[in-house]
Design brief:
The structure holds four protein chains of four kinds. Chain A is α+β, with helices and mostly antiparallel strands. Chain A has 15 helices and 19 strands. In chain A, the strands form five sheets. In chain A, strands 1, 8, 9, 10, 11, 12, 13, 16 and 17 form a nine-stranded mixed beta sheet that branches. Chain B has a single domain, classed as P-loop containing nucleotide triphosphate hydrolases (Rossmann fold). Chain B starts with 5 loop residues before the first strand and ends with a helix. Classes of the chains: A alpha+beta, B alpha/beta, C alpha/beta, D mainly alpha.
């Protein structure tokens, strides 16, 4: 026995000896821990995954961008385009490109041709999953190497929103794409502050500073972007000093627990992801508005916010996430009133209450489902909850198999996109252009359509506000709250801006980001 | 032959086993002497304790905690029972060898037989590996294993029972011992092979000037090889004497009955079984242990134990019986 | 009248595959065997292990299927009966196995063991069964309180009595006993032999006793067949074959069977070598490599039967053969 | 020998075929759509349909099955639906990590488990035996994720010796071994317990064997008796259980890989399952089958080396 333990100790010791600590370097290395297990695609128009979008946001530029730390569409600023103008009818937009912008790894200077190529590629369903975002584009042309001209088929609420640096609107190198023959993801070449160096499958992506970045050489020299799917492992890795920035958990308990870790700063920022209870109006018994109203009255919002945690969520009465262009708080709200709910059910012909079979995902929202169940039960609504595997749930709810769909989402911060995808009848499940209108809502159709082509911003806002009010009045969906983005970072890391929100759902790493 | 000439002298040797909290004597106060250059057979049916007796001499009883050995074992002037294990190991490696019954299980199945023999040779301090190997081949040759070079590489399962038993004998000879204990060495063999092995054992014992304890239940085998015989019944020695005397003029009724119960080719009509069964160790008769099965038992036989038979010299025949048969013609009638 | 058991031209080979995809080789366990048992007759089948005698028993019992030949019980083909699932034929034929320890189910008490054959037959009432098994116990001399006990409560001899009682249950006409005594002590062996003799007489039972012990066979059997490597080499009455063997192999067996007296010493090591592998048997007479009297023709010619004046049959070139080369002994390679 | 190996490999073809077919159909019976998994929530039905078409998911089931089978026959396991890389390449990327992890775990388990088991058997029902039993109990009853987290807390947080995450590739080759130790031990400790237990049992079984008595009869040292005679014979069941345990080890590797954020087959299969990457799942099943077969074969070959009584048939 003694012998065994001696040998064990010896082997462990030997193991440690052979592993000299890595020499300290003057380089600034940022180590990021993300929750996915592997990269999807580094092609900005081929991935809607947050873990990819966060990364591409550091590697690419767009024509325009949100200033780091915000997602306010009214503050959109120049990025690759220095300036822009549009025709009076709002159908032709002309962008003047910033001179002397270089692509990474010597792929040459950015020209209008690259922009045209990128935008055309992003609007082609064969090469882009965001093609529908660019549906209004008629033509994209380059009258000269420094000018890009976009012609629209019809007016859109905000063209700038479409070309803001994010996802499909990120500009790639034409040369690089042509070289890789459709496998662009292997050699992502952009213009952003950091350039792609390598991807060690399922382990990490290494980025290096783009010394020629047009806003100045980044202070961070290298970024390791590590895929760490286990929540506990990220927490522990941060505690062990192996990470500087990492994806947290959207849980009050987690935030409180992590606050005690020395050197941590918890970042809570936008955009909020709105959690909606979608009620399917096309199915019995939810086709009766009184039943939907009853459900709305049965829900205790205060309890929900408290339950999930005031630090990580924001109460939101509307059906669009807070802060989106066109958002309004001024909407009708159903008071928490169990008696009223019961009364409404009785009127609808359910004096003894009713039972709803509901599918839920086993991956998210598991505990809050139970709270919802409890709240509804008090009003006599028995929610027969069946938790199923996440991918299965996704495909089931797209077949109208669950009368209630609890769904969390964020979109580009303009009300139109969110309203269209979730509440326009064109997006209803079963329609050819179906997206995520699980409630088969049509109450806001007219206002959404009107807003889309309205030139007067004031009027446009009014339409959007009206749409929200009508959708809530029709009880297509009951908004619960906005779930914020929660990250942890070292207090030595200085992002270089105030982080209030980020369009990529993760902190921007800019040329100014550095270690204190 | 004076007692001092004895190679091995056993006095009041008892082997007790712990069974459900009770101490049960499996070997009961055995006295035995083995002269140099002779073969002593210990004969008995299964469960008579003959193997226990033999294994207690070399302290190979298996789980040592379960057995309690008492008495005296003098081997060549040394008292074996008190020896520390390391010294006992030396004795086993040099002076006393054992040939086991079940050669298939008694040989390591995953080691070539040559290596197993070399291992035994190495104990006596042979100078080099090469010398050890030569000695191993010589031993294989001595036990008449054909083409020893090739056979040395064989594994036990590749050999016949007879060949394996020859290997066992070679292994026992390796350390040039003075005493060989052969524990039922021919039991599972065919008669023809048994005959070969017995002859081999007899020859190697003679040629190497050793003594041998030969344990068997087979009276024919005993007759063929033994100089002296001790008959065991229910843990006790009931009769001792020269092979010739015991087989032709048995004095103890058990010995006599055993001979009569043995089916013989030459006397097919004389078969006479011994009634009853061997008593179990946990319910031994207090007095004479054979009394319940004895045709000649009288009252005294169930009242007190007869005096133990003691082997004094090879010419002296003793029986542990109140009424031993006295004359030659009594037994053979 | 046809014999009780008539085994005609029995052949049996086992396939041995040495490695995957390699051509299969065959071990000829029974080269060619003819054998018969008359009513109330005890026939002994003797030979060394590996000679094929147990295979003969298993073929007769239908435990394995013979390659060729016919087995008739009371004139009826057993294989035919088995094909028709006629259990009647089977009831007339019972077996007693060698190992009395593993051949009885330790989870069944004696009553269950003994009533099992009746229950399978399904003809008797519970009371009748009870009566029968009490009588069976008496017949094999077991105490009547044995019924509720389990096999492990009995000694080896008693278990073999139980096995015999079970075999007797359905009033068979033939019992095949494969080494029924070899696991027993000498004193008990004699008891069982006498028991079998008694049953043989009382029920006019035929016995086929398979044994390697010539003494046992001589004590019990009236007729003997000697087997060597799949062939019968000598056949005749027990007296003829065992007291005055003629085939060199039988002579060797006889020599190697040691009597429990000093004459055993002169009989050692009369036969050399071991039984060859049936995978690769010698040409001609299988025994010739070990035969002290082998001649040139023994190496190439399979000996046919010679019928000696006393009526026994010997397959050996030493004796003048029957006029026509026997069709029953030929080596069809 | 070569014949034996070939025969064994050939005889596994039906097994692999059935396993792969079962996975093919099961994956498609499960609700869930790789297209949604790839495109994300916001994708329109149009985009989903386009992708399904591209992936061939719109074709009749039997047609897809036919494609799959012909692909397998050509030795082409297809391309991952999600990453678009060939399944073989995906596996080749991560397999070395799983391999080194399992080899480390097996090595660790055998190196410490066997002596532990022997000591426990020789001193049965005494202190060393109890210690070994407690270690075995802990190893067998604690799930790998628990051991893993404990390990991290102890050796990465409290005494920061080892890194928490990763395969060590970030800091170079020296770090590679260092990063292998915690997950290797975590994975190996259950195996160690398993080996220790079977070693204890089989040594206990071999000890009373008669050839051990024969060895003692020769008067050789007890150490030689144990190492030269007892252990060699006790090894066989240990090898057998180790071979059987390999499957469990692969399973545990999944959890270990997730906790320690190592790349590997386990993580690959979990990802494939979650994203309903049918092609990758099928390919992985075939590869797992082959691994298990090869390990079984290796076990048999090693056993045959250790025990000459075993014939390779």
């Amino acid at each position: 026995m003694k012998y065994v333990s001696t040998v064990m100790a010896a082997v462990l010791f030997a193991g440690m000896q052979s592993i000299a600590p890595a020499p300290a370097e003057a380089e600034q290395i940022l180590r990021v821990g993300i929750h996915g297990s592997e990269a999807g695609s580094f092609d900005p128009s081929m991935s809607a995954e947050t873990i990819d979008n966060i990364l591409t946001a550091w590697m690419y530029g767009g024509l325009v961008r949100f200033p780091p730390g915000t997602i306010d569409p009214s503050k959109i600023e120049p990025d690759l385009a220095e300036s822009w103008t549009h025709s009076d009818d709002g159908l032709v937009w002309t962008f003047k490109l910033r001179p002397n912008v270089a692509f990474h790894h010597g792929y040459g200077k950015l020209t209008a041709e690259d922009v045209v190529y990128s935008l055309k590629r992003a609007s082609n369903p064969k090469t882009s999953i965001f093609a529908s975002d660019f549906a209004a584009f008629d033509k994209v042309e380059a009258p000269d190497p420094a000018t890009v001209q976009i012609t629209l088929k019809h007016r859109v609420p905000s063209l700038l929103a479409i070309v803001t640096a994010q996802r499909g609107a990120l500009i790639i190198s034409k040369k690089a794409d042509e070289e890789t023959k459709g496998e662009y993801s292997k050699k992502p070449i952009g213009t952003g502050p950091f350039q792609f160096e390598e991807y060690k499958a399922k382990q990490f992506v290494r980025l290096s500073a783009n010394a020629d970045y047009y806003r100045g050489k980044p202070k961070i020299d290298q970024i390791f972007y590590r895929y760490i799917p286990s929540n506990e492992s990220r927490d522990l890795a941060f505690r062990a000093g192996e990470l500087d920035l990492f994806y947290g958990r959207k849980e009050q308990k987690w935030a409180e627990r992590m606050k005690s870790t020395p050197g941590i700063i918890i970042d809570v920022f936008g955009p909020g992801e709105l959690r909606l209870i979608n009620l399917n109006e096309s199915m019995k018994p939810l086709d009766d508005i009184r039943v939907r109203q009853a459900i709305a009255h049965a829900i205790n919002h205060e309890q929900f916010v408290k339950f999930v945690g005031a630090d990580v969520v924001a109460d939101n009465p509307s059906v669009v996430p807070i802060g989106y262009l066109g958002y309004t708080k001024d909407v009708p709200r159903f008071k928490f009133d169990v008696a009223k709910a019961k009364q409404l059910l009785k009127e609808a012909g359910y004096p003894n209450g009713l039972t709803l079979k509901v599918l839920g995902s086993n991956r998210s929202f598991v505990e809050p489902y139970q709270l919802l169940q409890a709240q509804l039960a008090k009003a006599g609504i028995n929610m027969d909850l069946q938790l199923i595997e996440h991918p299965a749930w996704h495909s089931q709810i797209r077949k109208d198999l669950s009368p209630i769909v609890v769904y969390t989402a964020a979109r580009f911060p303009i009300a139109d996109i969110f309203l269209t995808q979730f509440f326009h009848s064109d997006s209803a499940i079963g329609q050819p252009r179906a997206v995520t209108n699980f409630s088969h809502c049509k109450a806001g159709d007219k206002d959404i359509d009107a807003a889309r082509v309205e030139t007067d911003p004031e009027k446009q806002l009014k339409y959007w506000h009206e749409a929200q009010r009508k959708i809530i009045a029709d009880v297509c969906a009951i908004p619960l709250f906005d779930e914020q983005q929660v990250w942890g970072q070292s207090n030595k890391l200085d992002l270089g801006y105030k982080l209030e929100a980020s369009i990529s759902f993760g902190p921007m790493i800019t040329e100014k980001t550095t270690f204190k | 032959m004076p007692p001092s000439a004895s190679l091995l002298d056993i006095k009041y040797l008892s082997v007790a086993v712990r069974l459900q909290g009770r101490q049960i004597d499996i070997v009961d106060r055995v006295n035995l002497g083995l002269a140099r250059d002779r073969t002593l057979a210990i004969v008995g049916e299964s469960g008579s304790g003959k193997s226990m007796l033999a294994m207690s001499i070399v302290r190979l009883l298996g789980d040592a905690k379960r057995f309690a050995v008492s008495g005296k074992i003098h081997f060549d002037g040394k008292e074996l029972l008190g020896l520390p294990e390391a010294r006992m190991r030396e004795i086993r490696g040099r002076d006393i060898s054992v040939i086991f019954q079940d050669s298939l299980n008694a040989l390591n199945p995953v080691v070539p037989i040559g290596r197993q023999i070399e291992e035994a040779i190495s104990r006596i301090g042979t100078s080099s590996r090469e010398a050890g190997r030569r000695e191993m081949l010589r031993l294989l040759d001595e036990v008449k294993i054909p083409s020893p070079e090739r056979r040395a590489l064989s594994y036990p399962h590749e050999l016949s029972g007879g060949m394996r038993q020859r290997v066992m004998i070679a292994m026992a000879l390796a350390s040039k011992p003075r005493l060989i204990i052969a524990d039922e060495p021919t039991t599972s063999l065919d008669v023809t092979i048994q005959s070969q092995i017995l002859s081999l054992l007899r020859d190697v014992r003679r040629e190497n000037g050793m003594s041998m304890i030969f344990i068997s239940h087979n009276l024919g085998a005993v007759a063929a090889i033994a100089d002296d015989v001790a008959v065991m019944y229910a843990g006790q020695i009931v009769e001792t004497g020269t092979a010739e005397d015991i087989l032709s003029v048995p004095r103890h009724p058990y010995t006599r009955d055993l001979l009569l119960a043995t089916p013989r080719i030459d006397r097919p009509g004389e078969l006479r079984p011994i009634p009853g069964v061997v008593p179990r160790f946990d319910s031994m008769p207090f007095a004479c242990r054979f009394a319940p099965r004895c045709r000649g038992a009288r009252e005294v036989c169930t009242q007190k134990p007869p005096a133990p038979a003691e082997f004094r010299s090879s010419t002296d025949q003793q029986a542990r019986c109140f009424f031993p048969a006295g004359e030659r013609h009594v037994a053979t009638a | 009248m046809s014999p009780l058991l008539d085994v005609r031209n029995l052949r049996k080979s086992f396939a041995v595959s040495r490695s995957f995809l390699a051509p299969k080789r065959y071990v000829r366990a029974i080269d060619l065997v003819n054998l018969s048992v008359e009513r109330g007759e005890a026939v002994g089948l003797i030979g060394e292990s590996g000679c094929g005698k147990s295979t003969v028993a298993r073929c007769i019992m239908g435990l394995i299927r013979a390659d060729a030949g016919e087995i008739l019980l009371e004139g009826k083909s057993l294989s035919e009966a088995r094909r028709r699932r006629n259990t009647r034929a089977h009831e007339r034929l019972q077996m007693v196995f060698q190992d009395p320890y593993s051949s009885l189910n330790p989870r069944m008490n004696i009553e269950a063991i003994l009533t099992e054959p009746y229950r399978i037959q399904g003809k008797l009432s519970v009371r009748e069964m009870r009566e029968r098994i009490v009588r069976l116990l008496e017949e094999v001399s077991l105490p009547s309180d044995s019924l509720s006990k389990y096999p492990q409560h009995f000694s080896g001899g008693q278990r073999q009595r139980i096995s015999i009682a079970r075999a007797l249950a359905l009033r068979p006409s033939l019992i095949v006993a494969d080494e029924p005594l070899s696991a027993l002590d000498v004193s008990v062996q004699a008891q069982i032999i006498l028991l079998m003799k008694k049953l043989q007489k009382v029920h006019e039972l035929g016995f086929l006793l398979i044994s390697h012990d010539l003494g046992v066979v001589r004590s019990f059997c009236t007729r003997v067949a000697v087997m060597y490597l799949g062939r019968i080499v000598e056949e005749g009455t027990a007296q003829q074959v065992l007291d005055d063997p003629r085939h060199p192999y039988t002579v060797a067996l006889r020599e190697a069977s040691l009597p429990p007296d000093i004459s055993a010493r002169d009989r050692l090591n009369k036969i050399q070598g071991e039984i060859p592998s049936a995978l690769d048997p010698p040409l001609g007479c299988h025994f010739h490599p070990r035969c002290p009297r082998a001649m040139a023709r023994c190496k190439s010619e399979v000996p046919g039967w010679s019928v000696l004046p006393d009526g026994r049959r010997v397959a050996c070139h030493l004796y003048p053969q029957a006029a026509a080369p026997s069709a029953t002994q030929s080596d069809k390679g | 020998m070569i014949r034996f190996i070939l025969g064994r490999l050939l005889s596994t073809i039906p097994t692999v075929f059935f396993a792969a077919s079962a996975v093919f159909f099961c994956a498609r019976i499960l609700p869930g759509d790789p297209a949604i998994a790839i495109l994300g929530d916001a994708a329109s039905q149009e985009a989903i349909n386009t992708l399904r078409e591209k992936l061939g998911l719109d074709q009749p089931l039997m047609t897809q099955y036919g494609h799959f089978l012909t692909g397998v026959l050509r030795g082409d396991l297809g391309n991952s639906m999600v990453s678009g890389h060939s399944v073989v390449a995906e596996v080749a990327d991560v397999f070395p990590y799983t391999l080194e992890l399992t080899i480390f775990a097996i090595g660790f388990g055998v190196l410490f488990g066997v002596p532990l088991g022997i000591v426990a058997a020789l001193r049965s029902d005494r202190l060393p035996d109890y210690v070994a039993r407690v270690i075995s109990l802990v190893g067998l009853s604690c799930p790998a994720f628990f051991i893993g987290i404990c390990f991290i807390l102890a050796f990465s947080i409290y005494w920061p010796i080892f890194p928490v995450i990763g395969s060590g590739d970030v800091v170079g080759q020296a770090g590679h071994l260092k990063a292998l130790i915690p997950p290797g031990i975590t994975l190996g400790i259950t195996f160690l317990a398993f080996v220790a237990r079977s070693a204890r049992t089989s040594v206990m079984e071999v000890l009373p064997e008669q050839f051990v008595r024969t060895a003692r009869m020769k008067g050789i040292d007890e150490t030689k008796v144990i190492l030269g005679h007892v252990l060699r014979n006790a090894l066989l069941p240990i090898i057998t259980v180790s071979g059987l345990y390999f499957g469990i080890l692969l399973g545990n590797a999944v959890i270990t890989e997730v906790i320690f954020t190592r790349p590997g087959l386990g993580k690959l299969i979990i990802g494939a399952l979650n994203s309903r990457d049918y092609v990758l799942l099928q390919g992985l099943t075939i590869i797992y089958c082959v691994i298990v077969v090869v390990v079984g074969l290796a076990t048999d070959l090693i056993s045959a080396c250790v025990d000459p009584r075993l014939k390779l048939t």
